[in-house]
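Late entry, iron/sulfur cluster complex.
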Amino acid sequence: MLCPNGAIFFALFKFGLFLTRKQNENPMTAPTETKTRPTYYEELRERGYSRRDFMKFCTVMAAYLGLEASGAAQISKALMTTPRLPVIWLHFQECTCCSESFIRSSHPMVADIILDKISLDYSETLMAASGHAAEAVMQKTMKDHYGEYVLCVEGSVSDYGDGEFCCIGGKSSRDILKEAAAGAKAIIGWGSCACNGCVQAAKPNPTHATPIHKLVRGKPIIKVPGCPPIGEVMAGTLIHIITFGTLPELDRVGRPKAFYSKRVHDSCYRRPYYDAGLFVESFDDENSKKGYCLYKVGCKGPMTYNSCGVIKWNNGTSYPIQSGHGCFGCTEENYWDNGPIYKQMASFPGFGIESNADKIGMIAAGAAVAGVAVHALATNVQKMGLIKKAIQEGKDAEQELKNPLSKS
Amino acid sequence: MKGRTLRRVFVWELPVRIFHWLNALAIVVLCVTGYLIGNPPALMSSVEASNRYLFGIIRFLHLAAAYIFIFNFAFRIYWGFVGNKYAQWKNFIPTSRTYFKEIWKVFRIDILLKPRTEHLSVGHNALAGFMYFFIFLASAFMVLTGFGLFAGMSTWWLPKLFAWVPSLFGDSEFSVRNWHHSVMWLFVVFTIIHVYLVMYHDYVEGRGELSSMGGGWKFIEEEVFEADQHAEQEAEKVKTRA
Ligand code: SF4
Ligand code: SF4
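Prediction complete; structure with ligand written out below:
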């Protein structure tokens, strides 16, 4: 078992196996319904995966998606009965780290099942065809599966001028997106580029890099941000669509709740140090060796929603905070323009780089104290008459009052 | 020299005074803990994390003070409708030309320190009232952004109602947090000026400004009191004639 929660997975796996065995006795669910496109299961068997591998995969996916014990059976049933989902995967202004992350997700079948020849009808990075042949494949997929395919977009779109900053096959990224979006059943934005523009959209954003939800209207869009997103999160999102035929439940920003409902901070194993007030002060100090919380060296975990602390990266090996580096909030809107990576407070807009709110606040408070002092001095000068009168009045009263000691 | 005759006026009702001091306490706690949350002190310690909960306590104090601040604030809004004339909302939100005229007069007398020609309001003066209005707005902003930040980790429905707040800040909790932190300084500056001006009034006018938040009493000159009554009677007459 790859996962640390082996026991749970094993239990789920067993249960899933039990359910699917029962289903197999029912001839209605036999995977022979479509002649045109094979099911995932058929393709996988053809590629030499055993049924056992397949069931393991379903179980792992069900656990990642947070489904109940019967989830694995639902997934396996879907993969055995539904013909594979046509997928068009577009690349625009990006670095392909999302694809990289995806094909390295912990279960090898993830890459095989979705990418590779099995499901991907069009992907510049991974398809064998190129040039006009590739374009023809995309056109054909769009025509044959109009209204059925899932459009995956990796990268932001240049919304500048005629779109000349990002052209593929002589077409601007904007036009390609609009054309492909028209017949899509749903759109998935992979990574922060497609979801919030990422680094290309950071100020001054010379190419007018634009996330897809600002360009496509009237289509369900799932955002799977991250730089890159975790491979298992990407796979889980697709598996959900395949299994249930619906979009996963999304949060306010449009991210699948199964993976983005918790802050990195809330699942961080360094959280006890945070609560204890024990912080790394600089990357080479004693505290950092002890593994204290990275908040003061700029960790943005408290504002960042992702599953890094739970699913982790590279087959659950580690994640940035575990490796000693703070989170920099890669799943959040506008994260490149939200202040320095290694500081907690952003610089204050319009007051230069080193000016955080506290410095300006202290200057303002100092100015208030100075102003008040000047006013106090001026009061004593300007209102001298008034004050003197009051003092005199008080002194007179004091005189007029009998001395209590001389009372007879 | 003959002294002034002063007349005792009941200005601040008990609920207003309680509000004031709870509010003051909450603001002090909120500012101190808020500052610490943004700038945690450097502690070198070999104590295991399981034996300490310092930052947790700081955050708890911040949240507890925030709830006191919020419900106290809500109560004050309610009291702005049922309280006495010095507590009424009209003291804070300008509804007439006289309000603006008075702001200008107060500005001349108390800020530019020009000689006083007439007696001004007994409760809040117009300029102070107007400033409090801005501080109320800032308070509302803090409540909004604070709940907005808290919604993501809260399980109670009340903070959860504010989950939409980050969308006002480009869906970025980073900016919500920065704004929430920056506006804190407004309260610090306000407090400095507020405390100073209370002392200023007490010093220059000698009418019990500083102690009024204790017992609720202020003192005004007998002549002013009578002039005020006279003016009111005149106004009544005009009203009944019309
Ligand atoms: S390292 Fe970051 S995410 Fe972890 S507890 Fe500290 S601030 Fe939170
Ligand atoms: S730890 Fe933070 S910055 Fe790093 S991958 Fe996770 S969400 Fe992104």
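The pocket of iron/sulfur cluster (ligand 2) is lined by residues A 226, 264, 304, 306, 308, 319-321, 327-331 (CB under 6 Å). Will revisit in the morning.
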